[in-house]
Design goal:
Helix content is about 15%, strand content about 60%. By secondary structure, it is α+β, with helices and mostly antiparallel strands. The radius of gyration is 23 Å and the shape is elongated.
């Protein structure tokens, strides 16, 4: 009986130790973030979650979108009061402009899976165009 108890205890300890080998810490976000009424700028060494920011925009406003993809998967979503106005899955380097078609609150989302790079949404003033 004593041998069985010792054997069971050893098997339990071995199972627990083996399980610990497969556990690892995943960094959700490492980098910098700047956001205000006119800007949402992410620069990340690691992105494994969704980051979002809301901006109140007016019809005719222009948003400059830039992205620098270094590695991993990076997805971008821009949605307005009534619809999605841009969706980019597994994006690469890019630069373009979005014209806002209705007043309201807009949501800017950046999601990553082992993503490394940067994404910036910036309200452009008329004189900058």
């Amino acid at each position: 009986m004593k041998r069985v108890s010792v054997l069971i205890t050893m098997m339990l300890m071995l199972t627990m130790m083996t399980g610990c080998l497969f556990m690892y810490s995943v960094t959700e976000f490492s980098g910098s973030r700047a956001s205000n009424d006119e800007l949402f700028d992410l620069d990340f060494d690691m992105l494994n979650r969704k980051e979002e920011h809301h901006m109140t925009l007016k019809e005719g406003d222009t948003i400059k979108v830039t992205a620098d993809h270094k590695s991993g998967k990076i997805d971008v979503l821009v949605s307005g009061p009534s619809d999605t106005i841009y969706q980019g899955d597994d994006i690469e380097d890019m630069e373009f402009f979005l014209t806002i078609e209705e007043d309201g609150i807009y949501t800017f989302e950046v999601s990553g899976d082992e993503g490394i790079g940067s994404v910036c949404f910036e309200l452009v003033k008329d004189e900058e165009l």
